[in-house]
Amino acid sequence: MVVCKCRKATRVYCFVHQVPVCGVCICFPEHQLCVVKNYAEWVVNSEYDWPQHCSSCNSVLEGGTEETTRLGCLHVVHTKCLISHIQSFPTQTAPDGYVCPSCSAPIWPPSSIKDTGSRLHTELKEAIVQTGMEKNVFGNHYVTIAKADTQTPPAFASDPLKTLSNRDDREFNSANAAKDAALPSTLHSGMYSSAVGSETTIHVDPEIVEIEGSSPVSTQFSVQDSNFIRSPSPHGRSYFFFV
């Protein structure tokens, strides 16, 4: 057991840089394509083959050109090669049957890194999910997959406010005036009534009932009725106020 530079205990060792690496540091760019094995193997034999080759297509791995994934057995493979490799297995294959193309170790769970919250676990899970066969590969192993962000959008997610010029303001007012002119005349007459002999417009209270002086409807209301107050009108009209 050795200690990584981040102070985590580990059994994994980078042969290229000759430093211990944990499940997080092993995924850093400087170790992405390194030959990484068990520390006990380095003690016995520190020699290694370079450059690294993809465990699936056997082509030379070049940093920064293609996406790669490190398996749980610590072999490195092109991500697209890993996806094709997993999809080549029959659908009835057991979870332990999905193995590394180089050493035949199970792809999941990682055997060299036991920390399930490590970065190696996360990146390997993301690559397996891309195959669409994650349920077959993971099997009964408990795996947590990050869900997409489903936050509710802001309540006022509208277009930004716009500053209207004087010309735009006049056009806006003209459009509103045209809409008002298009309203039915009955709507205007229901809200307002013109006074007789006057150009002033007065508002008619809906609780005031206008009765013509000679209308027979006036006989329905008694002057002595305590619920109404009669108001004389100089134009031969009577108004009853509900109280």
Automatic annotation (TrEMBL):
Cellular component aspect of the GO annotation: membrane
Gene source species: Zea mays
UniProtKB keywords: Membrane, Metal-binding, Transmembrane, Transmembrane helix, Zinc, Zinc-finger
One MF term in the entry's GO annotations: zinc ion binding
Domain called RING-type: residue spans: 54-104
Record membrane topology: Single-pass membrane protein
One Pfam short name: U-box_ZFPL1
Keyword field contains Ion transport: no
Protein name: RING-type domain-containing protein
Signal sequence interval, chain numbering: none
Location within or outside the cell: Membrane
InterPro entries: U-box_ZFPL1-like, ZFPL1, Znf-B_box_ZFPL1-like, Znf_RING, Znf_RING/FYVE/PHD
Family: Belongs to the ZFPL1 family.
